[in-house]
Amino acid sequence: MKRFARLNTLSVLLLAASLATGVAHAQLAPSASAAPTQAGAPSEARKANIVIIGTGGTIAGAGAAATNTAAYQSAVVPVDKIIASVPEIAKIANVKGEQVFQIGSESFNNERLLKLGKRVSELLRQPDVDGIVITHGTDTIEETAYFLNLTLKSDKPVVVVGSMRPGTALGADGALNLYDAVLVASSPESRGKGTLAVLNDEIHTGRDVTKTNTFKVETFRSPFGPLGYVVEGRTLYFRLPARPHTMQTEWDIDKLDKLPEVAVVYAYGNVNPASVDAAVKNGAKAIVYAATGNGSVGDYMVEPLKAARAKGVQIVRASRTGGGVVIRNAEQPDDKYDWLVTDDQLPQKARILMALALTKTNDTKELQKILWKY
Ligand code: ASP
Questions:
Q1: Between 20 and 361, residue with greater pLDDT
Q2: Which domains does the chain have, with CATH numbers?
Q3: How many angstroms does the Cα of residue 85 sit away from the middle of ligand 1?
Q4: Which residues are substrate-binding (predicted)?
Q5: 58 is catalytic
Q6: In the annotation, is 135 catalytic?
Q7: Is the pTM of this model over 0.85?
Q8: Whose C-alpha lies nearest to ligand 1, atom 1?
């Protein structure tokens, strides 16, 4: 008791001193208030204008019972209804909903990716839009995030958000995730950081984030850690994305009308060479081979992959391990076979990057540089 009393006296003294100097506010909210406001960005004096684009997923899902945390129907609740279910959002931003799709994210394809990206770009060009939040299924949120990260031409914040549990479930995570996503999209500090993914109190770069668990709310991970946290209404950044994104890349979503076909072939003991032939027959311009370990290729798979390369199809060695870089000319003589390796991109992310890269060049040396750059 005595100690509390002493602390209280101390607190009163500190508060009096800080009121006099104006220091308390800066200490209580170091991140939000310390950052300089950039031209055109919302300041603390006005609320940001955020468009929330709905595309479906579990964040728009509903289950039969509150105990259905993992079995439910996704993509059924309209985005305006999701926004209305989180009235706290209106206190931090002026938001407008727009339904672009109502699908499970497993149903994304190149056409839908391009359509979404173009609409986001159009909205970002509007001077009265400060940032975009995209509600999205979690299954492929990492692919959309990486794609937008590489192709949007704006410094304004774009945040993808989803949830692991539908709004009807006990312990639903969508409301807080959406609130946090709007906070991040409204923060001047989020400008120029590329496309971000906000889930489970964390801010991730769209380049790195990946789903690692089928049902847990802490499923999203970045191999090098998140960029920051969102906690108690505060956006706290601790790291910056190291790889080029948005304004620094060679792609512009407004100029992309079609993406080349890139297939992922998954390796396993007894993998069937016919999967390579099928990809070639289907018109793949590149095959990302989700190889075992550090991109190792079974002896009976080398010839089919070489044959595909001989037909002009680019071969990219990636890894199915979920982490680490693939070393060029180590497990396979890439120079000799004219093959490529990923950097640390997971196969599904390498697929996105290769599709974009092939819109620029078909030269293997140039393609390798792109894989190592982004
Ligand atoms: N299958 C759902 C989707 O990706 C899962 C989710 O959103 O969590 O749309």
A1: 361
A2: 48-248 (3.40.50.1170), 260-373 (3.40.50.40)
A3: 19
A4: 105, 138-139
A5: yes
A6: no
A7: yes
A8: 104
